[in-house]
Amino acid sequence: MPLTHEEFAGLTHLGSGKVRELFAVGDDAVLLVASDRISAFDVVLPTEIPDKGAVLTGLSLWWFDQLSDLVPSHVISSSVDEYPAELAPYAEQLRGRSMLCRRLDMVLIECVARGYLTGSGLKDYRRTGAVSGHPLPAGLEDGSKLPATIYTPSTKAPIGEHDENISRDDAADRVGGELAAELEHLTLQIFGRASDLAAERGILLADTKFEFGHDKDGVLRLADEVLTPDSSRFWPADTWVPGGAQPSFDKQFIRDYLVSTGWDRNPPAPELPDDIIESTRARYVEAYERLTGISFKDYLSTA
Ligand code: Q0Z
């Protein structure tokens, strides 16, 4: 059965992402629930990847822990048995794939760091020679390592639309100069910590997006999901060759399969065959285990 907000009929639904749901819990908390849905070429597929939601939740939780000396997170608990009583009816659907979080006043920009050039950064570079006001050297290609990590804030687009890169001046106009400077500093610090750690484990962190918010005491916290394959581009280090699209750590089997079907990239997408589902699930579990050094079974048994 696909996980949708309909299955949590007693909860106050605050919003849906492409593959996630957000609910209110009392006045001061929210519940983030990651489904097993997956998108490719910007379309949510009709087939789910078993355990994907748990892998991504486990990764976010592990990263929040690794980063806690740099920035506090929004997480209250991920132990279903500690959740408030109103969530008890959903305990088994929530186990492993959910986080109870402080309800924050969200910052109205997305905080993006890029160590490699691809995606919308590459598009802006080809058009203007710069990304979010960072002038870049000539001759960079899709997948090039940038001379230094850049901070490229973006707007929060409504679901189905793409975030738009904005200049750091524009970001300062939107959130205020002092907060803009703090977000940039934190984003670059977190990205540096995360990309060093991933590189030691044979995974390149090409780029990633963070969301922040303020708690009721005014403390700035790292929010949402962090450093998952859905909020970041992870590339296998051993196949990195600039000059074209890099293989995706998690979705490459799916992309290759979808291309092989001749699908025109308009919804609905075709169903995935069992071998593609299984190899993709294995890649998610491998990403979790390589990055964290924890067996995914152990994670599930503690959730
Ligand atoms: C997260 C999102 C999702 C749809 C708002 N701690 C928080 N407090 C208040 N709001 C949020 C958070 Cl994380 C918040 N999003 C993104 C996630 C479904 C939208 F699962 N938007």
Structure write-up:
The protein is α+β, with helices and mostly antiparallel strands. The chain is 32% helix and 24% strand. It has 8 helices and 16 strands. The strands form 4 sheets. Strands 8, 9, 12, 13, 14, 15 and 16 form a 7-stranded antiparallel β-sheet that branches. It has a 5-stranded antiparallel β-sheet with strand order 1-2-3-7-6. The protein has a two-stranded antiparallel ribbon with strand order 4-5. Helix 6 packs antiparallel against helix 7 (274-292). The radius of gyration is 19 Å and the shape is globular. The two termini are 21 Å apart. 38% of the residues are buried. The model has no long low-confidence stretch (mean pLDDT 97). The structure holds ligand Q0Z. Ligand Q0Z is lined by residues 15-17, 20-22, 30, 32, 74, 101-104, 106, 213, 223-224.
The ordered string of helix (H) and strand (E) elements is: EEEEEHEHEEEHEEEEHHEEEHHH
Largest sheet features: 7 strands, antiparallel
Which segments are poorly predicted (pLDDT under 50) over 5 or more consecutive residues?
none
From the spread of the alpha carbons, the general shape counts as: globular
Number of strands: 16
Protein structure class: alpha+beta
Strand content: 15-25%
What molecules are bound to this protein? ligand Q0Z
CA radius of gyration: 19 Å
Mean pLDDT: 97
Give the helix level as a range of percent: 25-40%
**How widely separated are the two ends?**
21 Å
Number of helices: 8
Oligomeric state as shown: single chain
